[in-house]
DNA sequence: CCTCCACCGGAACGGAGGGGGA
DNA sequence: TCCCCCTCCGTTCCGGTGGAGG
């Protein structure tokens, strides 16, 4: 049934990119000067999640590495590395200069190491809006060999907190906008994965269209549904994906996504999430009261607010209402 | 319209944790 | 070994905001 499971994974990088040629050329135009030994331009990729931003960014860097010997590239997910220190150590890691880095390293030592690069270094900073301190971008701008490809899904409020000088620098980056995939584009992306990953004839085009409809332009969701369906079919010993299995795979895919987020939470954060999940829409005060009586060593109200904010960021919880009438509930019904 | 109240989130601070250097 | 310098997490403090109700 499953012929090559890798192509169904989230982080799989296709050999050929479909339906994003304009965006790819746009980005390549910014980076291409490096081939001639010139300084490439910084780039900013914006658009909704699942629209192919990360995929195109990584793909373009791969292309450059194939063309050039004297170039380094790396990918840093600012969601996982949201502090200045973690980003910097991620960047050093990408050029093999991360040896003997520890948290006690003097402030600027990490930057100095980056400045000593003798090759162009092109880095993807994914989910850059998750950075706690955007001032880091200013420091990275100051490193001549470094070119940044910044990836974010909401351009507007990302850079509102930085000063004008940095803002204008960021605005001068080549901006590539991504839209949601159209329905037929998603179908052909899925077809590609099916062709490489599954035995022939396991799923019909109609079924792929069904997946594309539900995924609503989000390629990651679409592939996740496909993956869950294939897994369920294989478990049941079937060699095709039935409509019933496919229907069941939709909530499973959502649960899988949710589960992954929940695993990243700390114990106390999980308790707070559990309260919202079990007891339905609640006010912040009510949530904190319940949380306080649920654990032995409760944190303060301020910390509970930080937790709630985090849950919203993780898309586990959503909020509505302002001020005193604010409530929190779990996402997706 | 104005005041109260709950909530929001920035800022500053402190302690724990962790590893290098004298 | 002790000291130092860092990060990370939570705390305290507080000004700002926007419904609800007089």
3D structure, described in words:
The chain has 333 residues and is an alpha/beta fold. Helix 10 crosses helix 11. The structure holds a DNA duplex (22 and 22 nucleotides).
Q: Radius of gyration from the CA trace?
A: 22 Å
Q: Kindly report the spatial arrangement of strands forming the biggest sheet.
A: 2-3-4-1-5
Q: Structural class of the helix and strand makeup?
A: alpha/beta
- Beta percentage is 5-15%
How far apart lie the N and C ends? 33 Å
Globular, elongated, flat, extended or rod-shaped: what is the shape? globular
Mean pLDDT: 85
Helix content: 40-55%
Sheet with the most strands? 5 strands, parallel
Number of strands: 7
Q: Number of helical runs?
A: 14
Produce the secondary structure layout.
Layout (H helix, E strand, L loop, with lengths): L20 H11 L11 E4 L6 H15 L4 E6 L6 H10 L15 H7 L5 E6 L8 H7 L4 E7 L2 H4 L5 H8 L2 E4 L5 H15 L7 H11 L3 H17 L7 H21 L3 H13 L4 H11 L6 H13 L3 E4 L6 E4 L3
Parallel strand pairs: 1-4, 1-5, 2-3, 3-4
Antiparallel strand pairs: 6-7
Helix pairs in contact: 3-4, 8-9, 8-10, 9-10, 10-11, 12-13, 12-14, 13-14
The protein binds a DNA duplex (22 and 22 nucleotides) through α3 and α14.
């Amino acid at each position: 049934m499953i012929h090559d499971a890798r192509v169904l994974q989230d982080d799989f990088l296709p050999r050929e990119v479909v339906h994003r040629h304009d965006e790819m050329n746009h980005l390549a135009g910014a980076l291409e000067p490096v081939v001639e030994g010139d300084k490439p331009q910084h780039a900013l990729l914006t658009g909704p999640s699942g629209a192919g931003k990360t995929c195109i960014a990584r793909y373009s860097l791969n292309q450059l590495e194939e063309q050039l010997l004297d170039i380094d590239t790396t990918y840093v997910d600012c969601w996982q590395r949201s502090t200045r220190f973690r980003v910097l150590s991620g960047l050093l890691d990408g050029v093999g200069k991360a040896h003997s880095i520890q948290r006690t390293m003097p402030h600027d030592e990490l930057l100095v190491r980056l400045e000593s690069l003798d090759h162009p270094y092109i880095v993807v900073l994914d989910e850059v809006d998750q950075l706690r301190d955007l001032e880091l971008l200013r420091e990275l701008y100051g490193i001549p060999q470094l070119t940044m490809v910044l990836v974010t899904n909401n351009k507007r409020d990302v850079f509102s907190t930085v000063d004008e000088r940095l803002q204008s620098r960021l605005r001068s980056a080549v901006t590539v906008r991504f839209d949601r995939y159209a329905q037929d584009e998603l179908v052909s992306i899925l077809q590609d994965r099916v062709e490489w990953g599954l035995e022939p004839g396991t799923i019909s085009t109609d079924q792929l269209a069904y997946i594309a409809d539900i995924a609503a332009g989000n390629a990651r969701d679409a592939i996740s549904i496909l993956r869950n369906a294939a897994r369920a079919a294989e478990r049941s010993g079937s060699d095709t994906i039935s409509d019933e299995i496919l229907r069941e795979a939709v909530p499973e895919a959502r649960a899988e996504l949710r589960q992954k987020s929940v695993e990243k939470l700390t114990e106390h954060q999980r308790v707070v999430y559990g309260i919202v999940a079990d007891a339905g829409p609640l006010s912040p005060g009510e949530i904190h009261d319940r949380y306080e009586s649920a654990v032995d060593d409760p944190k303060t109200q301020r910390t509970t607010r930080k937790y709630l904010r985090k849950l919203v960021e993780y898309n586990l919880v959503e909020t509505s209402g302002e001020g005193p009438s604010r409530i929190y509930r779990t996402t997706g019904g």
